[in-house]
Amino acid sequence: MTGKRHVITLIPGDGIGPEVVGATVRVVEALGLDIVWEEVEAGGDVAVKYGSPVPEHVFASVRKNGVALKGPITTPVGAGFPSANVTIRKKLGLYANVRPARSLPAIKTRFEGVDLVVVRENTEDLYSGLEHIVVPGVVESLKIITEEASLRVGRFAFDYARRNGRKLVTAVHKANIMKLSDGLFLECTRRASKEYPEIEYREIIVDNLCMQLVTNPCQFDVLLLENLYGDIISDLCAGLVGGLGVVPAANIGPDLAVFEAVHGSAPDIAGRGIANPTAVMFSAVMMLRYLGETDAAARMEAAIIGVLDEGKTVTRDLGGTASTKEYADAVIARLKDSPGCH
Q: Is 154 contained in some domain?
């Protein structure tokens, strides 16, 4: 442990967010680190009060503390306020979305040994939200790709590969059709690759990637994608290893980072105490590594995997009967039995 005090912005979110985030906070606190949580509200109920699901004080807290742990926030479909998740990423300049997808022995899927990381550009592409009606019945959406953003996320992906012992970065595109926009993205990723000669670099068309992932996902290591492709492919990769309920995510900028589960807010089961906190817990593991608490992160990760492997105290979606609290209790019990616990 570093012995350093960490002040972390805590955004419980809505729906099942407060339940899964609360369970995760209990586990993190059991590690014995010097952590202070600064809780701020965001979500649908907050939007009624402040006119936005993410009030300005949320951004101020993250900017001050530099790091946040976030639960899911409901996004209305087809109407209502813009996505809170996209708003947070854009307003805080969190340009790189990092989504590891790794096979867990206790969770049986079609494939074993999957261990890949999706790096998604987080600030532009069709998520720029530039849409307008040309004439009645015709709507135009603008895809924005810039040299600055593409080169920045390209360098991030290669740097991530270097720092984490990864050997291959594969850029994903549709430049055979979108020759200018995706062509610029590829031009930038090629430039970035030349700065990291020890990392192998490949390119693949996005539709071919989908087919390759569901036939042999183990051939991939780090996938580098634009925003929309990254959103779709990261969910596909989650499905290869057990679903959104077991995979973490980080949104990283030059000086700030927000760690979150990317599953929905599941309002249908909110308040029943049965939600699966695994994704938020693994996101907290990523957060601890980002903070330099690598030993604590390793212990927490091992405790979660141990509970999953045992299979007796997991939530219903994982084949068990445990409540959210009972699952967290089991992880904490393992932490107390592990070396280094105070």
A: yes
Do the beta carbons of residue 241 and residue 247 sit within 8 Å?
yes
| Structural contact between residues 323 and 23, judged by C-beta atoms closer than 8 angstroms | no
Tell me the residue range of the domain where 171 lies. Answer: 110-240
Catalytic residue among 50, 143, 159, 174: 174
The catalytically annotated residue of 207, 255, 309, 337 is: 207
Give the end of a domain, one of 195, 211, 240.
240
pLDDT in tens, the chain (342 residues): 778 999 999 999 989 999 999 999 999 999 999 999 999 988 777 776 777 888 899 999 999 999 999 999 886 655 556 678 888 998 999 999 999 999 998 899 999 999 999 999 999 999 888 999 999 999 999 999 999 999 999 999 999 999 999 999 999 999 999 999 999 999 999 999 999 999 999 999 999 999 999 999 999 999 999 999 999 999 999 999 999 999 999 999 999 999 999 898 898 999 999 999 999 999 999 999 999 999 999 999 999 999 999 988 999 999 899 999 999 999 999 998 876 544
Catalytic residue status for 231:
yes
User: What is the rounded CA–CA span in Å between residue 65 and residue 38?
Assistant: 9
Q: Write down the catalytic residue from 127, 201, 229, 327.
A: 127
Residue 329 annotated to the active site = no
Domain annotation covers residue 104? no
Same domain membership, residue 150 and residue 80: no
Q: Is 160 a catalytic residue?
A: no
Catalytic pick from 182, 221, 231, 329?
A: 231
Is the separation of the CB atoms in 93 and 63 below 8 Å?
no
Residue 174 annotated as catalytic:
yes
pTM over 0.85: yes
Instruction: Please say if 207 is a catalytic residue.
Output: yes
Return the CATH number at 27.
3.40.718.10
Q: In total, how many domains does the chain have?
A: 2
Looking at the structure, tell me whether residues 126 and 235 fall in a common domain: yes
Q: Which residue out of 50, 115, 196, 235 is catalytically annotated?
A: 235
Place of tokens 């699901």: 53
Spatial separation of the C-alpha atoms in residues 278 and 24, rounded to whole Å: 8
